[in-house]
UniProtKB/TrEMBL annotation:
The keyword Cell inner membrane does not apply. This is Acyl-CoA thioester hydrolase. Keywords: Hydrolase. The keyword Ubl conjugation does not apply. GO terms for molecular function: fatty acyl-CoA hydrolase activity. It holds the Pfam family 4HBT_2. It comes from the Bacteria.
Amino acid sequence: MTFSVPVLVRGYELDTQGHLNHAVYHQYGEHARWELMRAAGISQDKFIASGVGAVVLESTIKYKRELRGGDEVTVTCVFDWKEGEKVFRFHQQIIKLDGTVSAEITVVAGAMDLTTRRLVAEPAEHFRGLAENPELLGL
């Protein structure tokens, strides 16, 4: 299941060439990931209260087409769980209204126990236990 959120490219997010600043792509991805979690019933407060925090271990962006101020985009987000792994992945796209893929983002993440400062062994099970709509998370 692919989750998505709309975003409008704002003027203050642009670089000196008038393109969306590279760091803002990461922010759009982060926004979509937290909106997906919220839609699944896991607010940031609920997640932290569970004694676990989200950690990004790697984030890769492939830039395909420029974005400029006023462009309207959709940011997609799909969880990718691998059984027996402490990490999971997010696959995301930033798509213009005409269907052009502007960027592809892949994030490797984990769920860190805030007391031991170690990754949770079965992150999918932790998410499943917190979620009201686990199907949105691919669970």
